[in-house]
Amino acid sequence: MNLRIPGPTPLPPEVIEAVGQQMINHRGPEFEAMFHEISEWLKVFFATKNKVYVLTSSGTGGMEAAIVNTLSPGDRVLAVSIGVFGDRFAKIAEAYGADVERLSFPMGKAADPARVAAAVAERGPFVAVLLTQNETSTGVTNDLEALCRAIHSAADPSPLILVDGISGVPAIPLKMDEWGCDVVLSGSQKAWMAPPGVAMIAFSDRAWEAYERAKMPRFYFDLGLADKYAQRYQTPATPNIAALYGLHVSLKKMMEEGPDAFAARHQRIGEYCRQGILKLGLGLFAEPGHYSNTVTAVTLKEGWSAKQVLEALRTRYGIICGSSKAPGVEMIRIGHMGYVSEADLDQVFTALEEIFA
Length: 357
Ligand SMILES: *Cc1c(COP(=O)(O)O)cnc(C)c1O
Description:
The protein contains 13 helices and 14 strands. By secondary structure, it is of the alpha/beta class.
């Protein structure tokens, strides 16, 4: 099987082996040694001096943690959305009582930093801005550095910047400290070559100041508690030890490759995917200049439905791609993050060529 959805993603053999190991005491020295290394290595890939916490949840739990640990009900929040996951971030903030103002861009487009800055300056003051680094539903990567710069210069003090980096970090570089992001979060099953079940999240000093004021209800995702336990390399509740075994091994591999090489490899494979798709006469849904290097949204030829193509890929070739998330647009999404090679994509190109023939 060739699993080409944008998460969960395939695991390298050594990670598969790691997740099958016997359990250990999550309060014992073996766990602490593993947790210590995971924490240190995560900092490298988040480009931060801040601690990076691991939560036992999918990425959405990390999004929820970002909200409930920094905000209070009634806080004004600007939710910048370029697709399904940007909308999800807004909905979580609303569910906890934030006063959410939406700034949405059409699917396939990136967020315009000038318009975001104007919204911050004219419609504010906002306590926080919610951003998506890489919108998995459309295969669009925002220019996060430019967005952060625009937000910081649009208001003083500038609102907190909370970033959903689930399908980007660390395949698409995000310099948390350099760009002034206050919360960055990701998910183990995307670019990290690890199983689902772990969210990673980092807080800036400003985010910790906000934590002290934040009044939204929180218990399981209370980062103050996570921080207290992290001092001794533990988590407040029982963690997903198997997924952490996997993440530990994948991070070790990623450290050997190095963060720059890891990102460069995704740049190459992203470009390889786009070239292959264009050669087949298919289209790219994302706006040029904002193509994602982890997932490509492919528009189909006239008269073909996404359902029909996905079914043919799965049943005739054992290739699993993602469905369209854009209403009314017949497209498929090809994931190419983490443990992926050009050969994996060649299989997809060959299959698509045969299907369309
Ligand atoms: C996958 C994804 C999510 C949701 O993550 P889950 O792990 O399914 O909870 C949120 N945002 C983005 C950008 C994603 O790619």
